[in-house]
Design a protein that fits this description.
Layout: H1 2-6, E1 10-13, E2 16-19, H2 55-65, E3 71-74, H3 81-88, E4 92-95, H4 100-111, E5 114-115, H5 124-134, E6 153-158, H6 161-165, H7 169-192, H8 205-208, H9 214-220, H10 223-250, E7 252-260, E8 268-269, H11 290-298, H12 316-327, E9 340-345, E10 351-358, E11 364-371, H13 380-392, E12 397-402, E13 414-415, E14 418-425, E15 444-446, E16 450-456, E17 462-473, E18 478-481, E19 487-493, E20 505-508, H14 516-522, H15 528-532, E21 549-556, E22 561-567
Parallel strand pairs: 3-4, 11-12, 12-14
Antiparallel strand pairs: 1-2, 5-8, 6-7, 9-10, 10-11, 13-14, 14-15, 16-17, 17-18, 19-20, 19-21, 21-22
Helix pairs in contact: 2-3, 7-10
Length: 568
């Protein structure tokens, strides 16, 4: 009781004592199951999508049901609010949508967003903050920066009179400050000829002296008296702050999972993510024979429902050839685009069509067309088999069209005198039946092999220099090396494991510093020398790989990419 009286937690009330609890002792209110603060509309955030969900609603659901590092799935992406919130709060995420518009909006929203940098519990800075907040000394253990250990969160205290009475630290603080305050109180009583107890000393000395006569007031309001009074109150306030902090530390508390501590000196942007395409499912039609019926009966294939006479079924190969006739094959330089005079079916095992085009010297060339799988990857062995077939039939060039190519097929550009072009097909072709207007620009794009040189660096390290990309010259039928103007960005995996490509170095070569807007959007202090190293055709030095391999990925201005692996 003495302790509670000392710190002002008791007051008189009729014939007994009453306790004093402050608003800050329990400053939170439990949420019920009606969230009136998550409504959308004019008082919500700006809308970028017609059915955009308010951020606070998604945030509350994610914080209630997941921990940092957990995986969040949103099968209806929309404007990407779930991915945006999950990215902010350190959750992994997968989001899905049938609309390319929605995915484009979400991708832009994620890439242009800036997020607060929350202190990780498994970090040196986070552990220092935890010690400061809790007042407890933590064991000096190894930290790894693992986000799954969570963040350092603010606390909501639950102060009770019992927790105050049992807090022995308050006695220590009280005794320390008594040695400072008591001498000041005695001297103040001496000069004012008063008998003030601690609780009697007025906060405003001038107002207390208003009732005195002029001579007494002048005698009491000397500089010495004012300083004694100010020093006593300064110590009194400091003592109360220290006691309040001790009470808060010793009280029971709850973590505020939506209020982690933030490092204001850092700016965080979205981590690496990919946008993948899964094309609309195409049902395989069963053949009208015994084998087809048996396969259909066993569930191996599914018969397509009957199609109206005015809606004939479109064959994938015919659809590709139709677009190839109209669009041609594009390369980085417009003059290198191949426009076909004719494309006719070819009765080969691998070659689907024979195409004719005219080179710069008005000589007609014959091209064999290989069409890759509708759902899958075109392999090196398939390209090689088609190239042998094309050589036997005296074709001048093989054009392999596919949505994706096997990584081992990257460096396959020629088989003897036969040039091999790998034309990557635009994913829009997958949805040609569903889109009203599939533009003919960039439906088939050839992106050649990168011309890369590995250089020695001081200290046994190495550097990578990219000279350009090899380009097929339709006028001569040869492969020529182009400069770096055709490269938008290039990346290095400095320790490639032949399974996954990790971007460990990233460089940009677009004209007119295309990432100037990113620097502006970050609104942060950027080291110009460090930024300049990103805008280069030569990498920073790095250690030789433990796997003995590095991989270089080059992306052109059409968004097409090619990967090449080097032994080091």
């Amino acid at each position: 009781m003495d302790k509670l009286a000392r710190i002002g937690r008791l007051r008189g009330g009729g014939v007994g004592l009453r306790s004093i609890l402050l608003l800050d002792d329990n400053p939170t209110t439990a949420l019920d199951n009606i969230w009136l603060d998550t409504g959308s509309g004019s008082f919500g955030e700006p809308q970028t999508y017609v059915v955009q969900t308010v951020v606070k609603a998604i945030q509350r659901c994610i914080l209630m049901t997941t921990d940092p590092g957990d995986l969040v799935l949103d099968p209806t992406c929309g404007s990407g609010t779930t991915a945006y919130v999950a990215e902010q709060w350190g959750r992994r995420w997968i989001t899905v949508d049938t609309s390319r518009v929605a995915l484009a909006l979400a991708r832009t929203r994620l890439m242009s967003a800036r997020y607060p940098y929350y202190l990780l519990a498994d970090s040196r800075e986070g552990r220092a903050k935890e010690q400061d907040v809790s007042g407890k000394i933590l064991a000096d253990t190894f930290v790894t920066g693992d986000i799954r250990h969570g963040f350092v969160y603010e606390r909501a205290p639950h102060v009770t009179l019992k927790s105050i009475a049992n807090n022995s630290e308050i006695d220590v603080i009280w005794e320390k400050w008594q040695d400072v305050l008591e001498p000041l109180r005695r001297r103040l009583n001496e000069v004012l000829s008063t008998a003030f107890e601690e609780w009697d000393i007025p906060r405003d000395l001038a107002a207390w002296l208003d009732g005195k006569d002029g001579q007494a007031k002048a005698h009491m309001m000397t500089a010495n008296v004012r300083k004694l009074h100010a020093d006593w109150w300064e110590g009194r306030i400091a003592r109360q702050k220290e006691i309040d902090a001790s009470i808060a530390r010793a009280a029971n508390f709850e973590f505020l999972y939506d209020h982690p501590y933030e490092d204001k000196s850092r700016v965080r942007v979205a981590g690496p993510f990919t946008v993948e395409s899964l094309s609309p499912h195409r049902v395989v039609a069963a053949r009208e024979d015994t084998l087809g019926a048996d396969l259909a009966a066993s569930g191996a294939i599914t018969s397509r429902p009957s199609t109206p006479a005015n809606m004939p079924e479109t064959d994938f190969g015919e659809m590709v050839l139709a677009h190839l006739r109209r669009a041609g094959v594009h390369q980085q330089v417009k003059a290198d685009t191949i426009h076909f005079n004719s494309i006719e079916p070819w009765p080969g095992n691998y070659i689907a069509a024979e195409a004719h085009y005219t080179d710069g010297g008005q000589t007609e060339k014959r091209a064999a067309v290989l069409i890759g799988p509708e759902f899958g990857t075109l392999t090196r062995s398939q390209i090689t088999a088609a190239a042998r077939e094309a050589s036997d039939s005296r074709f001048d060039v093989l054009i392999a069209c596919a949505f994706n190519f096997d990584a081992q097929a990257t460096d396959l550009n020629r088989l003897g005198p036969l040039a091999i072009l790998k034309a990557r097909m635009n994913p829009d072709l997958h949805m040609a039946e569903d889109l009203k207007n599939t533009g003919k620009g960039n439906l088939f794009v050839v992106f050649g092999e990168p011309d890369v040189e590995i250089l020695d660096a001081p200290g046994g390290e190495i550097k990578v220099k990219v000279h350009g990309v090899d380009v097929f010259d339709p006028s001569t039928g040869d492969i020529r090396s182009d400069d770096v103007k055709g490269i938008a960005a290039w990346f290095i995996d400095t320790d490639y494991d032949e399974e996954s490509f990790f971007v460990r170095h990233a460089y940009f070569l677009g004209a007119n510093d295309p990432y100037k807007s990113l620097k502006t959007a970050l609104k942060a202090e950027i080291d110009p020398d460090a930024w300049e190293t990103l805008y280069s055709d030569t990498s920073r030095p790095f250690a030789r790989p433990s796997t003995g391999r590095i991989a270089v990925k080059v992306i052109n201005h059409f968004g097409d990419e090619v990967l090449k692996v080097f032994g080091v």
